[in-house]
């Protein structure tokens, strides 16, 4: 189970201290939301910030590009220290070349899908990715309510992963708290991006541990339910 605090919910006046907090927390990944004011109606930060934070921790940097022109950003973020770069399937015809470019830069490859987009859109790419990031809110802002209608997409992705013997992570991003994390894990997710819930706690390490335990318990319940013999 991957727990990935999202820096978007950190105190932007103290990014170095917040990164150090993540470093001590036992979190698996640090999720870095990059917004261009065009693909989504908000701006966040760029490769300069990622580069400045890189020396502060060895935690895996998971960069989420919510950008209309990711092709101009892949190299800068790879150089800045991204370990994985997610682009959006909504970019259409460009997706294949973007995924290939991320791989050729030696970085892990992520593909994100927005709530209104049909899950069939990601099917052609499943054997070329390391993570499928199912957006569980409409991207652009932290602190939004989880959209439950996205959960069948997690279930479908988990079924495809099983059937095709693939091992990409299934991530969920948006509105992931101590309740919804269990629903996501039960549906088959194994990477959990969480901003407001995790950064809002004074004890980030305890919050990360709690979220991981809830996810593990829900996943175990799902496995046990599958093993019950049909009557
Ligand atoms: C949404 C971002 C998320 C966001 C999640 O546009 O992609 O990563 O930080 O934040 P919470 O957990 O507050 O919904
Ligand atoms: Zn994100």
Structure, briefly:
The protein has a single domain, classed as Aldolase class I (TIM Barrel). The chain is 36% helix and 19% strand.
What spatial order of strands do you see in the largest sheet?
1-8-7-6-5-4-3-2
The major pleated sheet works out as:
8 strands, parallel
Q: How many strand segments?
A: 8
Report the CATH superfamily: Aldolase class I
- Please give the alpha-carbon distance between the first and last residues: 32 Å
> What share of the residues lie within helices?
25-40%
Structural domain tally: 1
Structural class: alpha/beta
CATH class: Alpha Beta
CATH topology: TIM Barrel
Instruction: Choose one word for the global shape.
Output: globular
Describe the fold and architecture:
With 231 residues, the protein is α/β, with parallel strands linked by helices. It has one domain: TIM Barrel, CATH 3.20.20.70. 36% of the residues lie in helices and 19% in strands. The chain contains 8 helices and 8 strands, in the order E-H-E-H-E-H-E-H-E-E-H-E-H-E-H-H. An 8-stranded parallel β-sheet has the order 1-8-7-6-5-4-3-2. The longest helix has 24 residues. The mean pLDDT is 97. The structure holds D-xylitol-5-phosphate and zinc ion. The site of zinc ion has 6 residues, from strand 2.
């Amino acid at each position: 189970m991957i727990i990935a605090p999202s820096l978007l919910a950190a105190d932007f006046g103290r990014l170095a201290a917040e990164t150090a907090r993540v470093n001590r927390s036992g979190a698996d990944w640090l999720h870095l939301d990059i917004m261009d004011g065009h693909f989504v109606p908000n701006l966040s930060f760029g490769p300069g910030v990622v580069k400045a934070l890189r020396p502060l921790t060895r935690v895996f940097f998971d960069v989420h590009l919510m950008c209309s022109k990711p092709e101009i950003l892949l190299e800068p973020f790879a150089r800045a220290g991204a370990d994985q770069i997610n682009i959006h399937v909504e970019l259409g015809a460009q997706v294949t070349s973007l995924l290939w470019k991320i791989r050729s830069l030696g970085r892990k490859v992520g593909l994100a899908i927005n709530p209104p987009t049909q899950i069939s859109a990601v099917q052609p790419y499943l054997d070329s990715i390391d993570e499928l990031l199912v957006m569980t809110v409409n991207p652009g802002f932290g602190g939004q309510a989880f959209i439950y209608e996205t959960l069948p997409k997690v279930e479908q992705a988990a079924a495809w992963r099983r059937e095709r013997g693939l091992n990409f992570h299934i991530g969920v991003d948006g509105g992931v708290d101590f309740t919804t994390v269990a629903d996501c894990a039960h549906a088959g997710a194994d990477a959990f991006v969480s901003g407001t819930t995790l950064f809002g706690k004074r004890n980030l390490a305890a919050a990360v541990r709690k979220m991981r335990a809830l996810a593990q318990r829900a996943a175990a319940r799902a496995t046990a339910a599958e093993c019950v013999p049909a009557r």
